[in-house]
């Protein structure tokens, strides 16, 4: 199957998948011939890992989530600043300061086997909705393949959201974390994000991310 020649059929195929597993298997079948070994969808600005596609190392995402690396992820920041596609992880790495939190995120991702990263922002009317990232040391980077991946990324994200809305387990995923609940409660008491950052001894950016995550979860209930 050719990405460009069969793009219409590929999009239709994505829209026929009705579970994350089915979507993952379908995407894997399409993209494996083009050197894509792993892929994932991360929402922004909440930075939630929506779906891991094509068998990406689960250990990395568990580590990523536990360390709250989304708060310092330079790929997410680049996607929110520019809609240009693709975002090369190698180029971003060369632009971040050595020893910074952002640098550590990218360095540790390599330790888990994520190499050759290319990310495609999914843009909506209010800015970046998500980032779809593909990994592999031999990804086909011909311009026509990059254009096809850009388009496919949007449809992957749309179908993923459709699947999640119909998933009976969505309510469990939409429960607020203890830190999200803390931030919401302080804001409800009239505190500003600056006040909350001082109370919880975290950065203002961290508070904003937790509040945005909580708002998205509450809207989905």
- What's the architecture of the largest domain, going by CATH? 2-Layer Sandwich
- The amount of helix comes to 40-55%
| Rg (CA only) | 18 Å
Which range does the strand content fall in?
5-15%
Order of helices and strands: HHEEHHEHHEEHHHHH
CATH class category name of the largest domain = Alpha Beta
In which order are the strands of the major sheet placed? 2-1-5-4-3
How is the main sheet built? 5 strands, antiparallel
- Note the overall shape: globular
The average pLDDT is: 83
Secondary structure elements and pairings:
Elements: H1 7-15, H2 20-31, E1 38-43, E2 49-53, H3 58-66, H4 74-81, E3 87-88, H5 89-95, H6 101-111, E4 118-124, E5 127-135, H7 143-166, H8 170-173, H9 178-188, H10 193-200, H11 204-220
Antiparallel strand pairs: 1-2, 1-5, 3-4, 4-5
Task: Provide the descriptors you would attach to this structure in a database record.
about 220 residues, alpha+beta, Beta-Lactamase, Arc Repressor Mutant, subunit A
Describe the protein in words.
This protein is an alpha+beta fold and 221 residues long. The protein has 2 domains: 7-166, 2-Layer Sandwich (Beta-Lactamase), CATH 3.30.450.80; 170-220, Orthogonal Bundle (Arc Repressor Mutant, subunit A), CATH 1.10.10. It has 11 helices and 5 strands, in the order ααββααβααββααααα. The protein has helices at residues 7-15, 20-31, 58-66, 74-81, 89-95, 101-111, 143-166, 170-173, 178-188, 193-200, 204-220, and strands spanning 38-43, 49-53, 87-88, 118-124, 127-135. It has a 5-stranded antiparallel sheet, sandwiched between helices. The chain is globular and about 55 Å long. The protein starts with 6 loop residues before the first helix and ends with a helix.
């Amino acid at each position: 199957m050719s990405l460009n020649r069969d793009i219409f059929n590929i999009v239709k195929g994505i829209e026929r998948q009705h579970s994350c597993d089915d979507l993952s298997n379908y995407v894997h079948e399409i993209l494996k011939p083009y050197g894509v070994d792993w892929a994932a969808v991360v929402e922004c600005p909440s930075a939630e890992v929506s779906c891991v596609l094509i068998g990406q190392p689960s250990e990395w995402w568990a580590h990523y989530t536990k360390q709250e690396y989304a708060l310092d992820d330079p790929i997410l920041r680049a996607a929110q600043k520019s809609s240009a596609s693709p975002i090369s992880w190698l180029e971003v790495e060369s632009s971040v300061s050595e020893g910074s939190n952002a640098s550590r995120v990218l360095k540790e991702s390599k330790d888990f086997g994520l190499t050759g990263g290319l990310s495609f922002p999914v843009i909506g009317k209010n800015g970046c909705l998500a980032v779809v990232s593909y990994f592999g040391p031999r990804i086909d980077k011909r311009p026509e393949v990059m254009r096809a991946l850009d388009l496919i990324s949007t449809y992957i994200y749309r179908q993923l959201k459709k699947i999640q809305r119909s998933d009976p387990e969505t309510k469990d995923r939409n429960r607020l974390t203890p830190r999200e609940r803390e931030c919401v409660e302080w804001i409800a008491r009239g505190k500003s994000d600056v006040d909350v950052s001082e109370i919880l001894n975290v950065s203002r950016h961290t508070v904003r991310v937790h509040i945005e995550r909580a708002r998205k979860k509450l809207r989905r209930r």
